Please model this.
Amino acid sequence: MSAICLAKMSASVLALSLAWGTATADEEARTETRAMRIDYDQATAIRLDQPAKTVVVGNSSIAEALLVNDRTIYVQGRIFGNTNLIALDENGTEILNTVITVGAPLASQVTLYRGNTQFNLACSPRCERTVTMGDTDVDTHIKNSSGKMDVAKAGTDLSTKP
Model:
């Protein structure tokens, strides 16, 4: 190949890469990016600068999102982990893309370890036993809670019979 031909090809490649870079920068300017942290079993609101039509969560086991109106999203942390949340406008254009980290509360919680068992306490100001993911006896507490609900429902059913 001649030097002129190589120079023309290099100029074309440079022009294409500059044009692609400009389009990408324009897209990124329209997309709002945030990183957020949510405590498990807690909810937070995200206020959008632009109206959204659709919200998508990467892993709905980790976090759940609800589009309350076109500018407000409620996000609830479900289990520990990382996922992402994307909001799209009515044209399908991405207006928000954020990483969500769901973790344990940072304040007022104490975790006790005894061998391979784990117990959690919520302290404010007195410490009370709580059931938290990772606790050794979490399944027992869930079964006990279900049993208490069954007893309460049965009591309600009895009280409504003539």
User: Anything to note?
Assistant: Residues 3-30 form the longest helix (28 residues). Confidence is low (pLDDT under 50) at residues 5-29.
